[in-house]
Design brief:
The structure holds two protein chains of two kinds. By secondary structure, chain A is an alpha/beta fold. Chain A is built from seven helices and ten strands. The longest helix of chain B is centred in the N-terminal third of the chain and has 34 residues. The chains are: A alpha/beta, B mainly alpha.
Chain lengths: 244, 228
């Protein structure tokens, strides 16, 4: 099933021009968005996250137009979450940060507490709920940002250079965790400038050269339908948990 | 002890003795300036937020205008509103001239540009990722703007305090629109000017000391807020 489809996109930002004639992201797949620094990865991710409107073309989510969706636009955007390369945490506690998106979706206090606890466990920060974001290290902040996105269980998770500035062991742990997410029904796009990463994570490749996008089908596409929908609990602990 | 020393002692006695006249004047000042600050905050915060977040043709011109309004002389505001509220003016039938409401209106005009400008500065200095983070977590544009306000709340509080500081100490608007009527529109600043000219130096000094105290508290509050 096609989750997100881009058709005839032109997005001009100053002198930079992003062009996407056609791009299709299927549900429950892992994609590696490859490109050099300055090739437009972050711009493309912002477009995929429906945060930036193109000058022409349309983005379809589950075959429905998005930018021209009117009142339904926000509902569609709530299915997608972007974790930026240097994510920003709001002032206050870790719990408040994770609760932000859940509150907007109308979750009850008990449901929120469950999801927050579970997401923090996954990123190896169990019990961090009451910690102030000011007290967190850089690595912990990035994990909280990832947990904040995971607890929303989006259908499409976009990650901008998630392994930048991590050591080899941390990269391995994070990659191993992220490659497990499509099995749980989530579509994941990982932007990277690390030439070896697309091969390591074994996903479909999207290449970006000077603002031009081309989609390269990998032979090692994860096959089969997702075992769970994205609203099912994410696996905590075991091979799918993250300890970085 | 001399004129100054005697006046100072009398002024302290007036304050500590809770002199009714002093109390009433202080209350009028705090009430009118407090109301004006609340209204100016309700107007100035959205204006600052809107100017800080949106990009449109003429935005720079609006910001320049707002900067100019910050330095607006109080007597000019008093004069313009006097024209509006006077019997022959367009708002004359409302009978607002020489009432606390007229003073509140004038002080609101003075405080709004200050609050809007300082909120605009706080928004401009805020991390641009606050809005995009809120949006990607599912917020609407309005909810994202509210989150931004939460993040810059200390800057917003400083803006409101600065607005209050401007109006509590002004004399032009209070004099021209309030008329310095005893037990009604007499504020600390207008009373100081009038009583001193009548030779009641000690009374003026007592109000001056209270005004200084209020200014000190406002600045102390501003300092605490700015350090957070």
């Amino acid at each position: 099933m096609t989750l997100l489809e881009l058709k005839n996109i032109v997005l001009q930002q100053g002198t930079f021009r992003l062009q996407v004639p056609h791009l299709k992201l299927r549900a429950g797949r892992l994609y590696a968005l490859k490109g050099q620094n300055g090739s437009g990865k972050s711009t493309l991710l912002r477009l995929l996250a429906l945060l930036q409107m193109p000058q022409s073309g349309e983005v379809y989510f589950a075959e429905q137009p998005t930018f021209s969706a009117g009142g339904r636009f926000r509902r569609l955007r709530q299915q997608i979450t972007l974790v930026e390369q240097s994510p920003l945490l709001f002032a206050g506690s870790v719990e408040k940060n994770l609760a932000f998106g859940l509150k907007l979706r109308g979750f009850s206090g008990r449901e929120m507490a469950e999801r927050i606890g579970e997401a923090l466990e996954i990123v190896g920060l169990g019990g961090f709920q009451q910690r102030s974001t000011r007290e967190l290290s850089g690595g912990e902040s990035r994990r909280v940002a990832l947990a904040r996105a995971l607890c929303l269980r989006p259908q499409l998770l976009l990650l901008d250079e998630p392994t930048a500035n991590l050591d080899a062991a941390q990269v391995e742990a994070l990659e191993s965790f992220l490659t497990g997410l499509p099995e749980q029904g989530m579509t994941v796009v990982i932007a990277t400038h690390d030439v070896a990463q697309p091969q390591r994570i074994d996903g479909e490749r999207i290449e970006l050269i000077d603002g031009h996008v081309s989609q390269v089908r990998s032979d090692t596409i994860l096959s089969g339908c997702p075992a769970q929908g994205p609203d099912e609990p994410l696996v905590a602990g075991g091979a799918a948990s993250l300890r970085i | 002890m001399g004129y100054l020393g005697d006046s100072f002692i009398t002024a302290i006695e007036l304050i500590l003795g809770f002199d009714r006249e002093v109390q009433m004047t202080v209350w009028t000042s705090l009430y009118t300036s407090g109301c004006a600050t609340v209204i100016a905050a309700l107007l100035g915060i959205p204006i600052g937020l809107w100017l800080g977040l949106s990009r449109f043709r003429g935005r720079r011109l609006l910001i320049t205008l707002l900067n100019t309004l910050m330095a607006l002389p109080t007597v000019v505001v008093g004069l313009v509103l006097f024209g509006l509220f006077s019997r022959q003016g367009p708002l004359g039938p409302l009978g607002l001239l020489f009432t606390p409401l007229a003073m509140i209106a004038g002080q609101t005009v003075l405080a709004t540009p200050i609050i809007a400008n300082l909120v605009l500065a706080a928004v401009s200095g805020a991390d641009r990722r606050i809005i995009s983070t809120a949006l990607t977590l599912g917020a609407s544009h309005l909810q994202a703007a509210r989150q931004l306000l939460r993040e810059i709340r200390f800057g917003v509080m400083a803006a409101v305090i600065a607005g209050f500081g401007r109006v509590i100490a002004e004399v032009g608007v209070a004099m021209m629109l309030g008329g310095n009527i005893r037990n009604s529109t007499r504020t600390m600043t207008t009373a100081i000017a009038l009583e001193t000219s009548k030779g009641e130096f000690a009374f003026g000094l007592a109000l001056g000391l209270v005004l200084l105290g209020v200014a000190l508290l406002v600045n102390l509050g501003l300092n605490i807020v700015q350090q957070r």
